[in-house]
Design a protein that fits this description.
The protein is 38% helix and 22% strand. α9 links the parallel β11 and β12. The structure holds nicotinamide-adenine-dinucleotide. InterPro entries: Ald_DH/histidinol_DH, Ald_DH_C, Ald_DH_CS_CYS, Ald_DH_N, Aldehyde_DH_dom, MeMal-semiAld_DH.
Length: 503
Amino acid sequence: MTTTETATTTVGHWIGGKHVESASGNSAPVYDPALGIATKQVALANEDEIQAAIASAKAAFPAWSNLSLTKRQQILFSFREILNRDKGELAEIITSEHGKVIDDALGEIARGQEVVELATNIPSLMKGEFSDQVSTGIDVYSIRQPLGVVGIISPFNFPAMVPLWFLPIAIAAGNTVVLKPSEKDPSAAIWLAEKFTEAGLPDGVFNVLNGDKLSVDGLLTSPDVESISFVGSTPIAQYVYETGTKHGKRVQALGGAKNHMLVLPDADLDLVADNAINAGFGSAGERCMAISVVVAVEPVADELIQKITDRAATLRIGDGRRGCDMGPLVTKQHRDKVASYIEVAEQDGAVVVVDGRTVRPDGDENGFWLGPTLIDQVPTTSRVYTEEIFGPVLSVVRVATYEEGLELINSGAYGNGTAIFTNDGGAARRFQRDVQVGMIGINVPIPVPVAYYSFGGWKNSLFGDHKAYGADGVSFFTRQKAITSRWLDPSHGGINLGFPSNN
Ligand code: NAD
């Protein structure tokens, strides 16, 4: 069976509350990574379809933004119930296009659901401030209002969670949305749109536009789009930030990562090894918060590497629907790119301790397999160290002291997440203050903040001033007005050309 013969259905758009087939004639294959075949196509929108999605959101904005907070809140509550009820269905969809194992797909849905739950509290989150009697008979207060049409552009690695980082707060705050999902796994976004409609969301409030760079550029340059929330690789994040802001938009653009785990000599090495496996190889390393470098403060490296090696040998790699620990990579192209770093490591004089190229998966031989890979003594000049690999490749760099480890982490181009493993509270506290990274774990390997904090890194991991969700999310999706109010009283008559002052 050839690739094209299997790809009979085409994932279209969701515009104005319904499925819209694409007339563009352009499409891209969507693979089942565990089978290694294209199971469907995804439409790539043309200019007319891009404008139709934006127009749909624009038309829905006046009524949606004027709906009471209570009514918007009730739709969020309904959506939360539907998401929770049908999450198994969504997990199957995610696994069939992304490849991650079902449990992991359920995990990303749970983290997305947290933000939905946060957004059900929108009446409190959007509260303004009030100052009584700032001057005689004068009060000052602030209100928050939605922006209008907001664009969300998401990556392949969390096809449900990343849209849900933004969507619930954007919608609850009264905005209308055009979401451009990754063309590698577009079906989760359409599913979310169907379920929001079932929850009572009016047509046009949430639109899904499938497409490629043309769609992204359409959102970035449209005068009708007020803001862009982007998550993806650093070069595209930077492009999106620069292009969007040049067109007068508010932009938050989250980029790539290279996350280090600093292991101090007093750490519990069994705990560290368990966590290095979970954070290095979970979701086949295709997480922006994955640990990709273990920085071992000597003398722990030999013992730790042995423990990680022993554990890696027990992992079952295979089809995510078969109860395996780790699934395939998202595409053949990406699998081959990740595997090529193992060759680079060999050429650069690193020691390949566990080689994922020899994996024997529990799955179809055509799947995009690469097993867990552990590489010791990685030179910090090697591309294996300097570049984001985004696969199940864990590097070990040995350092002599805490200071050397800290310096290494702080000299990196990214600043998304990091973790320290130690039993020394003083060292951990020093680390949390000194490290130049946005999200820090203390004996926690993947410190993704809960929904009521905000998610985002520093340096090349985030372009813009606002992180995702939490207080930053509410701030991003609303504009504040400050109102100075006086109800007329005869005692305030008379002309005064002086600058207003508070007395
Ligand atoms: P990507 O940058 O290739 O794609 C992200 C989005 O941008 C997709 O919707 C894609 O269609 C679009 N896009 C791709 N090329 C484009 C171009 N030239 N012009 C305009 N738009 C373009 O990223 P990906 O491979 O889907 O996702 C993996 C990357 O995302 C990794 O670098 C990972 O670290 C990062 N990521 C970061 C976070 C974070 O919170 N910082 C979270 C998840 C993923």
